[in-house]
Fold these 2 entries.
Entry 1:
Amino acid sequence: MNPARLAKLSASLRTFQPASGQVAGLDALALNPCPSLVYLTGLHFHLMERPVVALFTPDDDPVIILPELEMLKVAGLPVHAFPYGENPAEWQAVFRRAVESLGLDGKRIGVEPRALRLLEFRYLQAAAPAAAFPDASETVSRLRVRKDAGEVAAMRKAVQIAQSALEATLPSIKVGMSEKEIAGELVIQLLRHGSQSEMPFAPIVSGGPNGANPHAGPSDRALQPGDLLVIDWGAACDGYISDLTRTFAVGEVEAEYAKIHHIVQEANAAGRAAAKPGVPCAEVDIAARAVIERAGYGPYFTHRTGHGIGMEGHEDPYMRGDNMQILEPGMAFTVEPGIYLPGKNGVRIEDDVVITETGAECLSDMPREIRVVG
Amino acid sequence: MNPARLAKLSASLRTFQPASGQVAGLDALALNPCPSLVYLTGLHFHLMERPVVALFTPDDDPVIILPELEMLKVAGLPVHAFPYGENPAEWQAVFRRAVESLGLDGKRIGVEPRALRLLEFRYLQAAAPAAAFPDASETVSRLRVRKDAGEVAAMRKAVQIAQSALEATLPSIKVGMSEKEIAGELVIQLLRHGSQSEMPFAPIVSGGPNGANPHAGPSDRALQPGDLLVIDWGAACDGYISDLTRTFAVGEVEAEYAKIHHIVQEANAAGRAAAKPGVPCAEVDIAARAVIERAGYGPYFTHRTGHGIGMEGHEDPYMRGDNMQILEPGMAFTVEPGIYLPGKNGVRIEDDVVITETGAECLSDMPREIRVVG
């Protein structure tokens, strides 16, 4: 339980502003096992077929509905627990008692649609058939979006672990290795260098034409001379993550590939330089994108310039050309422009940045120039 | 795309039987990125803030709504793709066009509540406001629950990788090591022995009183002489997983701890012996539980005896005393009785079993007797 964060949540629930002209304020927030639950309570649960839901209200201790076999996790905590046994036929009644204990039927229960599954939602809805379930993602995001010093320290460590792990992996990368083999070695090095064993995401290791697919998973394709090699990886430390990308040359590469690498490197620098308090997220995207557009590769930069980062790999704020959210000190996000030439190669260079009172701190400092591997 | 599995799905949609007295049959199945989607199509997507939904109907090629930057994943496949750009304001219209292309408004669109998030569901619901969204989990589960020879082979490999990895880890376990350190070393060994880098779940490593919490995450607690040490771990291979548990003695342990270990070992054997085609899942649970109850520890075995296993760690069929589902050849599940003494220690012994034409094959064969580590 984090009393300071719970107090802030209570205030946010009272002042919640819905998207359109509805009543302001929320009577409760319902969370399933997800980063926001960890943020508020420190409680970790597996996301499984047994639903776990915590209900937060402005004035009462949180209520939590959970399997009996998880009860030790909440022992001694200031929560009202509603445990259920192994027979799913009994679960709905437990949800009903929990919702009734807070008098929530007919009330406004905020939810996070990105995290809440239909599983938990349908139990909640059946327990409170007259309740409304507005999207409270922004309310929760506002609490989490400005990282405090402890959170930034954890992210800084996660960046350092990631960088050391990739440096330790690079010497072992050879022509003929598969993307999967490289990814496996990188994960081992991440663990050796101190990452939590639950990785933030599986590393992307994409050579040659696979690199032109920004979200390709590692394949059995063997690394070939002349490939570009995109490595998008991260570590987790104290519950916070890093998310970086560097692109390498496997021996000598065609002139166009070296050129697009250079353009992306300049775009990355321009995006980082645009990051400061008081400017909208859009400016970071526009600054990075302008470099790539001026070089004639605009159509090959097919995604936004970055996303927020913290407990999750993708969270607010998003660096999109249409996002007018204003950057504030403590906001942390990636800057990751790319150029993707279908059927040929791809380049992406990604850093993790935190807005400070006067500008931005780049947490990552691994060389961005094209380096030869293999 | 897996045409044979898609053909079976089409037949299942036509014959879908709802829980209560509603109309039979489904007009479509909607899946987000999840194991069932991989099972039917081989397609992997990150689960993120950008919604991805595939719609399967009995007669048409699948429709898939996805970000433009994921389009390479479906290039050349027999699917109708509805890509969207980076601005969320445009996504709803793309969902509407996709749903309209199949004429699904007002129809019955099955969903998997355990996987589908409110994010995807609300886009679907707004795109087809007159549609019904019945729970189709059982329909999909029926397709997946009987594993074919290729699937069993992958699970067998995942078991072997897990066993070799733990054997390689055991010599390094010493008094004074933290649970987290042991878990880190085990994950490294899992990767060295060939597990996919995306683990099925983070290993549970619980010493002493932590072992009395069946779902504890690894902590900073240092291993102490006299502890029992529960290790619940698994590997992933070719998209299929293993899930095993063994309990060790850290040096000499109190007589009661050795005794409960022996009881659990007998309960595990009884559960495995009860597994055969034609009997209900309940019999496996009852057989294992009877051993523990006879020994007077019934109240300390606080969970069901096992769960199905395959692409997921928890799936059908579940070994619960009230589950009358009949075991059939190809069904795969865990047998994992335990005894948990709050504040003291816990024991769990877990194996992976596949039902055959005549009985059951236990995929795991690592010694189950209490072994001393540290």
Entry 2:
Amino acid sequence: MRRLAVLLGLSLALVDSAAAQAAVSAAAADDSLKVEILADRLDHPWGLAFLPDGRMLVSERGGTLLLLSADGRKRETVAGVPAVASGGQGGLLDVAVDPDFADNRRVFLSYVGADRAGRRGTEVLRAELSGNALTDSRVIFRLEPKTNSTRHFGSRLVFGPDETLFITLGDRGDKDRAQDLNDHAGSLIRINTDGSVPDDNPFVNQAGRRAAIFSYGHRNIQGAALHPQSGQLWLHEHGPQGGDELNIARAGRNYGWPVITYGVNYGIGTQIGEGTAKAGMEQPLYYWVPSIAPSGMTFYSGDLFPRWRGDLFVGSLKFRTLVRLSLNGTQVIAEERLLSEQLGRIRDVVQGPDGALYVLTDEARGVLARLSPQ
Amino acid sequence: MRRLAVLLGLSLALVDSAAAQAAVSAAAADDSLKVEILADRLDHPWGLAFLPDGRMLVSERGGTLLLLSADGRKRETVAGVPAVASGGQGGLLDVAVDPDFADNRRVFLSYVGADRAGRRGTEVLRAELSGNALTDSRVIFRLEPKTNSTRHFGSRLVFGPDETLFITLGDRGDKDRAQDLNDHAGSLIRINTDGSVPDDNPFVNQAGRRAAIFSYGHRNIQGAALHPQSGQLWLHEHGPQGGDELNIARAGRNYGWPVITYGVNYGIGTQIGEGTAKAGMEQPLYYWVPSIAPSGMTFYSGDLFPRWRGDLFVGSLKFRTLVRLSLNGTQVIAEERLLSEQLGRIRDVVQGPDGALYVLTDEARGVLARLSPQ
């Protein structure tokens, strides 16, 4: 019996290895990506988050939050979503599920709020999901000061390893705000989930500086993800014409916009700021010229695509493609573009609990698609 | 008078700065690259080298060496080129001009030579250019052993900072040769220009190893350039299906082919070798999936494109594009593709003495084009 068991173990190992190799081959060959449309007729979907039971929350920019079954076939509209100021680049933006959701049922929404005069700013709501309704809602962050522009709101929501919450923002279309530490615009925010500011934020108790700011000099951040090994937050941001950047967020650092950038002014193509590098300002890990218009970001750590483990995926609105970045530590060593023109403007990319990649397309009839090896 | 001179100096400085800024803007904006066709009806041109007086030598794969005037309008056929074994990927390949050409009139050609049985291998000829003829020709390198395959010959010729000559090769379509140190195939060669082997080559006086080999484990190297600051030789090589690599050549190092690669087998898409990384084998600085089929390489150090200074340019046969890699030290921080589909398969790219970029297209009616800001 012992010998039989050993033989069986061996043969199972061989089968596993063959299966793994087949998966690798499928993933690497052309046209080998299986694309399933789980849900269509989504109205400019923006953010996607999984509940522990496999169901999904999908935000639509116009202000609707949907609760989808794990196979995407059933959808309910979640009640209790705040009124959002949609229009331009704003509306209902990201959705995130608390790491302790199983205990606290909390979800978080980022969206554009407006005051009575129509001045707008990114806000973050915390609420409990009860059935298909949000209850016990509370606004835990408001971008200050609000302005009339409908551009550059960010935003993504990512939990830090210490259960703080990162909120990515934009410069609100007014570039000099990104260098002003007394202004939330153009920065990365870090708060506790009750809205208070962590004691170890870099600008805490500094006069004329907003304590919630973690890093600044950002133009418009619409993708962020925690590195699965280092626990650091990686970000990308939209450049002007060219100069979209990939960065690692470090406390108190200045990412240079609009003083340094690899981009130029739209249309006229004139230089912006002082050039591409300056002492005291961070260089990007990687940048894109021309702009890909990045949105959404996830590190891949699943089993379905063993060859892509450790890679970083970024959605591209402009080129309607999913960008795969191969990494060697913090160095990008290859860029591949998948799904070119196949689905539409990619707004978000998330790894599902099954190890598949899920993408949302930013279209009037957008889709939720599941990507797996063919 | 002194005050006037100062004012004049200031106004000139302002003019220069405005002109420089205009050039930057033009270079960065879309459609801003001025493309002049200096010569057309070239038959699969392969290599381009400038003489000190601005004239150009252009090799054609079929076996013709052309001498072009600086404006490309006059062309002469150079006499005395050796018989080459053209066919498949072989024929007359690269051409290089000795750094001391003004004194010694020497030029170097790489090409495919065949023995009486039709077995082929890359060879390098040194000759003097007298008027429009090669004289005092001497073969200074022969790939050994020769075989019947018509694939993967390399090759580029680049002078090291110490006036040694680097010759890039391919694995001759027989991948295991790249790991055999008693076989030139699949290696980078370093010799003196008289054909002798430098004393400081890594495998000198080692039994069963070829002394001319500088590095190995290469699949097919068709681009190489000396870094203008570090003096190191940068290389790119064709991968199989995916996995084209960018590397820095270091003495005695193993670049992994075919044991490690980011590519897969053509068509069937099955894995090659053991994976993508292994102890004792080099990781690429950057790689391409899917393959771009790189050919030709130059670092830009001119004044016409100030924003591109320090960048690395690589021709792409497959995507008919000129790839610009932005560097931060030895790290690639951006990839841009220029001229997409505009000219054809780009076989070589060289910076001219005027700071413009010159490219050759690998077509039956190929062109020599000059790129400058619009």
